[in-house]
Write a structure and sequence with these properties.
Layout (H helix, E strand, L loop, with lengths): L1 H19 L12 E7 L4 E10 L2 E10 L2 H14 L4 H15 L6 H6 L13 H19 L4 E3 L6
Parallel strand pairs: 1-4
Antiparallel strand pairs: 1-2, 2-3
Helix pairs in contact: 1-2, 2-5, 3-5
The chain binds zinc ion.
The site of zinc ion (ZN) has 8 residues, from α2.
């Protein structure tokens, strides 16, 4: 299983890199919408801001406090959805959600995820799934203009 170990190490490196140097880590004063996400289990709390240009995500940023997984996931999320349409962003949300909750994602889709694949490792750690999905739920909530604050509840993800 040497390949698995190497892959785990690579994924860990991506997570740590995004935790230490989170991308798009700032407020967005001219945002179209935003949402707060909280994960009381772990103490993660973050805000996601979005600015749309027509149907496209022109800018997406976040700020907050949290564990390495929650911050890295948010950082990866901002990179992944920037420049995408609402529909594309929603599709990425669904794929990542399937990935972190340990559901099947076909090989081509997995490949297209790029660095987001690093989040798949959390599916083995149920407590971490909520950390990894927090920013994504905030993204979805902001896009759909629903409640301005989402909480990831205890129990099954
Ligand atoms: Zn966390």
């Amino acid at each position: 299983m040497a390949d698995d170990a190497a892959l785990d190490a690579l994924y860990q490196e991506i997570i740590l890199d995004h935790y230490r140097r989170p991308r798009n880590f700032r407020e967005l004063p001219n945002a179209s919408c935003s949402a707060d996400g909280r994960n009381p289990n772990c103490g993660d709390a973050l805000t996601v801001w979005l600015r749309f240009d027509g149907d496209r995500v022109a800018e997406v940023t976040f700020q907050g406090v949290g564990c390495a997984i929650s911050k890295a996931s948010a950082s990866l999320m901002t990179q992944a959805v920037k420049g995408r349409t609402r529909a594309e962003a929603a599709e990425i949300f669904d794929t990542v959600h399937r990935l972190v909750t340990g559901n099947d994602v076909d090989a081509d889709t997995t490949k297209a995820l790029g660095q987001l694949r690093a989040l798949g490792g959390v599916s083995k750690f149920p407590m971490r799934v909520k950390c990894a999905s927090l920013a994504w739920h905030a993204l979805k909530s902001a896009m759909e203009g629903e409640a301005p604050e989402v909480a990831v509840h205890t129990g099954a993800p």
